[in-house]
Amino acid sequence: MSSTIKLRRSSTPSSIPSTASLANGEVALNTVDGKLFFKKTVAGIDSIVALQQINAGIGVVIDTGGNVSIGQDVGTSATPTFSGANISPNGFPSSLTVNSSGQVSIANTLKLYGTITDTLNSTGSNYQVLTSTGSGVRWRTQSGGGGGAALTVRNTLGANGTVSTEVTNVSGINFDFNTGMNVADQGDGNVFVSLGSSFKTIRVAGQSNVVAVGEDTLDLIAGSGIALATNPSAPKSITISTTGGSAPIKTFNILGDFGLLTGTARFYPVQQDTVRSVIMSVAGIVQQDLMVGLYRNNQFLQFFTITAGTNYTKYSNLNYIIQTDESYTVSVVAGNATNLSMALFNINL
């Protein structure tokens, strides 16, 4: 005949046995709370241990493997405590909340001692960062070896012009101190770059200052007795020379504003000579090519041109012999300008 074995038990809600009521190895039950109690003794100190199944009814499930999962909302007032996890510790409400859709919110400092797995079940590698794909997150490799974001540096013709040079996956940019570039650390990840060696203002005693604004243009204008010649090819240069070493045979002057029909001047030689150089200049920069023709006895000899964007031109190695019984005329055949000076010399300048 079988018999039923019953353990110590209580049907009073929240009733917990005292350490004096249980012997070591003895267990007791609370049949209302569904808890199992036993006594443990550590270093001579007795205490009661309570065991209870935690189920989805209060939002937490512990499976047979010891894994903890949350299946429903956990209110801020709830403080369930598990081995190694505390959802709302005392004084830090809602530190970790999980809603019914499985969304996790963390309201306090997050410390990670393990790994993070992306949507492809990858845990990533050195210098990779988590980036959004629009529907999840992925580990992505960043350039530079130190985790910095990839950078592309381009050399363009103007703000949005043709790209002449492009360097990708740049992790650092170096500025040449020897050419006047200064780099200063302002802290908090900010760097200030300045141009240390440059001239902005050109001063001439008794004259107004010439001040550059942005990428400005400085025009060099030849005055009386001065010739300027530019060489745009390497090595680029500007040659300044004087025209005062020899007096001109003749200087044609067309004063004021003139154009195609109004620009004419005539010369009658008083002695025989040879024209070997011509220097021609106007007041101000011409907007289009200014072309002047030289005529002997109304017969064409040669065109002389001041190109657009300049105000000066020089022709050398000429060989025009002039006689006293001849007339020489200059006439504007294209363009317009102000105050033309055209000098004929008997030496090569």
Going across the biggest sheet, name each strand in turn: 1-2-3-4
Secondary structure: helix percent: under 10%
Oligomeric state: single chain
CATH architecture of the domain at 250-345: Sandwich
Level-1 CATH class name of the domain at 250-345:
Mainly Beta
Largest sheet: 4 strands, mixed
Shape: rod-shaped
Order of helices and strands: EEEEEEEEEEEEEEEEEEEEEEEEEEEEEE
Overall residue-averaged pLDDT value: 79
Task: Pick out the low-confidence regions.
Answer: 71-86
The N- to C-terminal Cα distance equals: 141 Å
**SS field, number of helical segments:** 0
CATH homologous superfamily grouping of the domain at 250-345: Nucleoplasmin core domain
- Find the count of extended strands (DSSP E, 2+ residues): 30
* Range of strand content: 35-45%
Structural class: mainly beta
Tell me about this structure:
The chain is mostly beta strands and 349 residues long. It contains no helices and 30 strands. The strands form 12 sheets. A 4-stranded mixed β-sheet has the order 1-2-3-4, with no helix packed on it. A 4-stranded antiparallel β-sheet has the order 21-30-24-27, with no helix packed on it. The N and C termini lie far apart (141 Å). Mean pLDDT is 79; it is low at 71-86.
